[in-house]
Design a protein that fits this description.
43% of the residues lie in helices and 21% in strands. Strands 3-2-1-4-5 form a 5-stranded parallel sheet, sandwiched between helices.
Length: 156
């Protein structure tokens, strides 16, 4: 059915749990995984005439966020390795995470986007805006939304 699944992560606990569910789903289908972290694009400080010495250069910023992307995608890559699932990790930079997620899915030949949702509804969803909603509205690739309503209970 699906051969290559794009799983998104932003490093939050919700996206980590979604990524775990995505790996399980990929394993059930025998699908390959592309795990994606979208970092915010570098922004020059426009409110000052001289860039403060403490402000990171674009190269420093990119290096730091590439390291963060490696950290955020590491668990998914490890879970895939343990289950013999082919997996590629990717960190990209963009002003709009939703647009970049959709573009990455198309560029890398994914046939499903697996993305999380906090499970908000009504005003909470409307006021906060949602990357998931934007992906749903922009994507021509099927999108599977993993909705995490409550944190799972762990038993020791």
């Amino acid at each position: 059915m699906y051969r290559k699944i794009l799983i998104t992560t932003d490093g939050s606990s919700v996206s980590s749990k979604t990524a775990c569910a995505g790996v399980t789903f990929a394993e059930q289908l025998g699908a390959e995984v592309l795990v994606l972290f979208v970092a915010p694009a570098y922004q020059y400080p426009i409110y000052v005439e001289i860039i403060p010495p403490s402000y990171p250069s674009e190269e420093e910023y990119r290096a730091a966020l590439l390291r963060a992307g490696d950290e955020h995608t590491r668990d998914v890559v490890q879970a895939c390795l343990q289950r013999n699932i082919r997996c590629t990790a990717l960190t990209t930079f963009a002003e709009s995470a939703a647009t970049e997620i959709v573009a990455a899915g198309v560029k890398h030949g994914c046939d499903l986007i697996f993305i999380g949702s906090h499970g908000r509804s009504g005003w909470g969803q409307l006021l906060l805006g949602s990357v998931t909603n934007k992906v749903l509205s922009q994507s021509r690739i099927p999108v599977l939304v993993h909705r995490l309503i409550a944190e799972p209970e762990y038993k020791n």
